[in-house]
Amino acid sequence: MTGLITYQRVIFWGVIFLYLASWLPIMFGVIFDKERWIPMGVRLSIAGVALHLVWVAVRWVQVKHGPYINLYEVASSNSIIAMIIFLLAQWKYPKVRILGIFILPTVFLFMGFGALSVKDPVALSPMLDSSWLVVHVLTAKLTFGSYLISCVLAAAYIMKEKGRDSRLLRRFPVNPVNEELNRKFVTLGFLNHTVMLVSGSVWANVAFGSYWSWDPIETWSLISWLTYGIFYHLITIHGWKGNRMAWMSVAALGSVLFAFFCVPYIFVNSHNIFL
Amino acid sequence: MLKKSLQCIKSLRLSMGLMILLIPVIMAGNLLPQTGRVSPAAIQEWQQAHPLVGKAVLVGGFHHVYTSWWFLCIFSCLFLNMALVTWDLARTTLVKARGLHRYSHEAVSYFTLDETAFSRERLDRFEAVLRGRGYVLKQGTDEIYGRKGWLGIWGGTILHLGLVVLLVGALISGLSRFNGYMELGAGQEVPENDQAYAQKNKGIFFPGHLQDVTLRLDGTEEHRNGKMNIVTSAVAVMDHKSGEEVHKTLTMNDPLYFHGLKMYQSDFVGPAALFVVTSPGAPESVAGYVNLQSRNGSNAIFSLPGTPFQAKIDYHAADRSLEMEVHDRNEVVYKGPIAIGQTLKADDFLIRLEAVNKWTGLLVVYDRAVPVIFTGFILAILGIAVMGLFDPREIWARRVSRDGTDILEIVGWGRWRNMFLDEFHDMKEKLG
Predict the structure, then answer these.
(1) H/E run at residue B351
(2) Is A129 helix (H, G, I), strand (E, B) or coil?
(3) How far apart are CA A64 and CA A73, in angstroms?
(4) CB B182 within 8 Å of CB B196
(5) Which domain holds residue A41?
(6) Which of B62, B78, B252 to probe the A interface (max A CBs under 10 A)?
(7) Helix (H, G, I), strand (E, B) or coil at B431
């Protein structure tokens, strides 16, 4: 088991290194206008995700459950989901590979945050020993990954609007492609967000006989769901687009970040028993 | 006036307003100390520390946000608004579903895309372009109508319908639900009724407990899993009328279901003393459990079953020894150790400690709204999935005569106007 722990930590740092290494060629390619460097960065990030999957498997064997219990695991699994969504998106829309400039350092920071937190394995509590856990956690991560990419797209849009002709910004998807992608990622996030809330609610009913108990995480997840619901109404019914839509994307992510990363530290609730 | 009020209630502005209002209200319920979540003493302490805000909190009912009348009002308004919006949405979607080629002004607001001189050849080329873009076509004389992703027009309606069903389910659940907490000792059997519960909460329309049904705890176990305690209980539910019996070992995430009754394992467990009391002149003895270690700790004062006495037991888990004090009002009638099988005589009562078994906490829930809530969940998810997966667009090109000239008018509609116009410009480039 000690060997497994060592391997797992070495792999974790290897993943961090690869994400950092994949960010550099993309940055270099953009700043010095060397197009051929960018695919190299993407290839390195694919290698990073492959190694990250190995880390997931090793960690799973070590702790006997998926990597979604303590902050170390949560930061890492959120990162891999965000990376997978990014790689799939850039495969479908090659222009979005430029977003790696934002996504890779964000993921790198998350991984660093995880690396600094407690890494001791925690046994799965009876409450978490449910098949709903996989649905709930997976959709939570897909929610976060989708909203994160939508926010990065929005940030790129805002920057593009401010510095119209820079070499960097010319590489970002143009409007309305940017808006369309933003909307698609918000829709994907919103769908997963809803499934996450519903699966959590059904699971709570199975575990405690109560669908909703206004637990702090439940409450803040509902607040972020309402925020994205308002966002959706604004873009579909009230025709918000352009800068307003982009700023709303950035602001809405704030509610999700708060629910995911601040609430477990501020409030006592059923989600933070291990943190 | 009535029409105006109705318009206001079903307006989208009100929907937005209520959703925006809900955010700070829900936040308040999370940030301020709430009754039922923290002890009354803690609430009082907080109010003393924040006298000004504390008074406002007390007056406004912010110490129980989620059960306050104004929170219920906001939710009722949202429900009413959503129900009416869903009704309108369903009606407009039904009209929209017929398509632009049967256009009526109530149906949909379309975009005028292009107007050029009509030629048969141009119309045919446009048809080919539409086909290439995956549009499903309907042809008429000198006109062509195409649409794609059409299922997507139902997404919003299905989502809103799901939310309405969900709120209806929550309402039914709130009015008819029962949840109770009971503590049973190993071997103890109780009739399933209000008296069996240490704590209970029921809606005003709760239809009542199952008739002639008893619950029995056959045994309970507690073991460690890392830092966690796992409690499992073997329970039985018996219907004495039909003779039906269900046995199950309860654990977290694995409740027992019996004709609308659901029983859950709580995380409380401890030792319980079983007393058998023989009253003077009574033909039968009375047996009853006393939990020796409740959440308040051991050494608790309790009424001895079947006697007018109050008693206090100090239980030492290490050697399973008991010290007991029996009071008749203020007079101590017995004080000393008591062993399993020992009988005490107090006045004319015979009190025998039959056994020390384990007890456990069990939750029992009746909730008839579960299928309704599930349906709401499924519809809401389905609605968002349909909205996300299908991007509805339609285009109608037709020959119209204006000032004696034949022109080809192209109109269209797409949920995402920019993206739709972008696609149309691509198509127009191909059309030449």
Answers:
(1) strand B349-366
(2) coil
(3) 13
(4) yes
(5) 1-120
(6) B252
(7) helix
Contact by Cβ (8 Å): A197, B376: no
B255–A206 C-beta distance less than 8 A: yes
ipTM over 0.85: no
* Cis peptide leading into residue B337 (ω within 30°): no
Q: How many domains does chain A have?
A: 2
Question: Do residues A232 and A264 share a domain?
Answer: yes
Domains and CATH numbers, chain B: 2-80 (no CATH), 98-149+391-431 (3.30.310.80), 173-269+362-375 (no CATH), 271-357 (no CATH)
Q: Are residues A140 and A89 in the same domain?
A: no
B377 within 8 A of A198, measured Cβ to Cβ: yes
Containing B109, the helix (H) or strand (E) segment is none
Closest chain B C-alpha to A206 CA, distance in angstroms: 5
Q: How far apart are CA B376 and CA B165, in angstroms?
A: 5
In chain A, what residues touch B156 (CB-CB under 8 Å)? 236
**CA of B22: how far to CAs of A194, A226, A233, in Å?**
17, 8, 15
Residue type present at position B411: V
- What value, to the nearest 5°, has the Cα angle with vertex B145 and ends B140 and B146? 140
> CB-CB: which of A191, A203, A238 is closest to B385?
A191
Q: What is the DSSP letter of A54?
A: H
- Site from B220, B228, B254, B413 to mutate, A interface, most A CB atoms within 10 angstroms: B228
Q: What is the mean pLDDT of each run of 10 residues along chain B (432 residues)?
A: 84 90 92 79 81 85 87 91 93 83 56 87 91 90 90 93 93 89 86 87 90 92 73 92 93 88 82 82 74 56 79 78 84 87 86 84 90 93 90 89 89 81 86 76
Do residues A147 and A195 both lie within one domain? yes
What is the nearest CA distance from B252 to chain A, expressed in angstroms? Answer: 6
What the block records as the tokens of B286 is 């009375």
